[in-house]
Structures are given as C-alpha cells and as structure tokens.
Amino acid sequence: MTEQTLDALIRTDEPLITALSNAAAFLYHSLPNINWCGFYLFDGEKLVLGPFGGKPACTVIPMGRGVCGAAAEERKTIRVADVNAFAGHIACDPASRSEIVVPLILSDGRLFGVLDVDAPVTDRFTEKDEKDLSGATTVLVSKIEAIMNHTGSGLGLPNF
Ligand code: SME
Q: Within the chain, how many helices (H) and strands (E) appear?
C-alpha cells in the first residue's frame, strides 16, 4: 500500500526536493503514532536536514552520531525501542521515545541519506514496520535514481 502510493505520488520528471517533500509528508501522515518523519541527506561528509513532517529539527548530524549517524555509518536499519537507552541519541524533540532509521543506499553503493521516523511512545516500531519502511525506501531509491538521471543531483530547479 505504502509502496504503491509512493510510486504513484512521485514523478521522476520533477525536482528531487519535490519528490522528497511529498514522500516525507505522505509518510508522516500515513504512519500512526509518530511525531516526526523525514530525511537527512548525506553531503559527502555529514548528514544535513532534508524534507520532513513534524517540528523543526537539528540541521546537521555528524556521521556516527545519534541513531541517524549510526545507521548512516553502518549502512543498516536501526530500530530503537527506547531512545533514552541509546548512547548518543540526539534529542531534537524531547517528546521522542522510540525511533527507526533506514539508510538510503543508491545502486552504485553511494549513501544518499537516511529516512528517520520518531515516535512519542516507547517501542513503537515493530519488525513489520521495519519491513514496510524498507519496502518504501526501495521505491524511494529507484525514484531518486530516476530523478537524478533526469535532472541531476541538485535541487532540479533552473537556478539551483
Ligand atoms: N533522532 C535522531 C536525531 C534527529 S531528530 O530526532 C529529528 C538521532 O538521534 O539520530
């Protein structure tokens, strides 16, 4: 369901920022019981805040820092049942209690960024959520690659 909706929602002839914005908004509103959902994008050195739904968040996350930085560095999904028990968790919003971070790896092996989903309750994310979000990121990665082939890796706007 999520995968089909994302597939229908994202056009590959429109800018990357457009695609990621609608993807973040759709996921934010379709997942129950969450307080933040969005992207951190890899700039070649660190993660920078991308499109999201939720409250304003930390803008820069060094590789290896917090759940996002760990998932990006290890290139694997990290599911945290209780953020207070995760050493180095970055509390952008003190209301967050659990989270899942899924890395977005392009088919040539490059790290594009991560999808970060936070919840205001402990133990919010199940194995099924992990599977669903991994399916969603697979669709996203193929859209991102198609957009990059079409418009390049910039924002896709004429002056940027
Ligand atoms: N939860 C993250 C930081 C980002 S915000 O929560 C939006 C982390 O510890 O990696």
A: 4, 6
Ligand 1: does its nearest atom lie under 6 Å from the Cβ of 118? yes
Distance 16 CA to ligand 1 centre (A): 22
Instruction: Please state which of the four CATH numbers 3.30.450.40, 3.50.50.60, 3.10.20.70, 3.40.50.720 is assigned to the domain occupying 2-144.
Output: 3.30.450.40
| pLDDT tens, residue by residue, 38-76 | 999 999 999 999 999 999 999 999 999 999 999 999 999
Minimal CA–CA distance to 37: which of 106, 127, 129, 112?
129
Q: What's this model's pTM, rounded to 2 decimal places? A: 0.95
Looking at residue 150, its pLDDT comes to: 84
